[in-house]
């Protein structure tokens, strides 16, 4: 085995020496003869090496192109993600500005400083970027364009802590949108990071609520004014109590997506909010009425135009009939004896 290794080494050395000698001979050749000899070597002895070099160069170019395309794809994905995040943030801020214009006074806008949480964790409190210096006090309602978020638990001069409706200590008096059914809203014991569900308890047993029924604040309790959306009924929860019913609610706001809030001052809360949160629905209803009126006018105009065309067609038909009748009378008079012109 050692002899075979030595013979292999000798063979490699011989090939190396031969290559060196051929290189020197090629360099020693006159200039007109170098190109033909080099071409012959590339086509014969050096052909495998040339093929390997060509493949290596192509692989290097393909690798660089693949890397460039991957970087471009990553840049496009990042730009799309940023654009989507900016669009969502703009929509939230636009909704918040709309809520501020409807409230008009007695509120403090604040940024919600979200704490880092693991996926699936329930957020029960938020740090707000405004405090007592801006007029925020303890138990001030914290709301958003979609409805109830929580209430202020403590207020420092420049920051405050908001207790969300997912907090086990949160309570709010609520009712149906038509004011026919009342109850107390509690956080649902089985709430998860994807649900933040609520419970409407102490509902009169003889009352049945359909899924999708909107629940709003009732104004009782002295914290939240009447008319702020809380959530919608999902289903009834079976309980051991025989004198009342409990319903599961889907909240109007998801705390995990809250970035900006409105904190109502205590005095503004006592003055009520009227139909501030009902205005979008009223506007939509008004828009439907306007569109309905426009459709009605368009239909009426189309009917008048059709009647006008029909009248014109009838008039043309009547004129044609008269002309045909006059022509027929002329022909009959001409054919009658002595019916020629006098």
What does this structure look like?
This protein has 342 residues and is α+β, with helices and mostly antiparallel strands. The chain has a domain at 105-283: Thrombin, subunit H, CATH 2.40.10.350. 47% of the residues lie in helices and 21% in strands. The protein is built from 5 helices and 12 strands. The strands form 2 sheets. The chain has a 6-stranded antiparallel β-barrel with strand order 1-2-5-4-3-12. A hairpin with a 4-residue loop joins strand 4 (147-155) and strand 5 (160-164). It is elongated, with a radius of gyration of 43 Å. Mean pLDDT is 77; it is low at 280-291.
Class from helix and strand fractions: alpha+beta
Strand content: 15-25%
CATH first level of the domain at 105-283: Mainly Beta
CA-atom Rg in angstroms: 43 Å
What would the average pLDDT be, to the nearest integer?
77
**What is the succession of H and E elements?**
HHHEEEEEEEEEEEEHH
CA-CA gap between termini = 145 Å
- Biggest sheet record: 6 strands, antiparallel, barrel
Count of separate DSSP helical elements: 5
What's the total number of strands?
12
State the CATH architecture of the domain at 105-283.
Beta Barrel
Q: Which term fits the overall shape?
A: elongated
Q: Name the CATH superfamily classification of the domain at 105-283.
A: Rod shape-determining protein MreC, domain 2
Q: What is the spatial order of strands in the main beta sheet? A: 1-2-5-4-3-12
At a glance:
The protein is of the alpha+beta class.
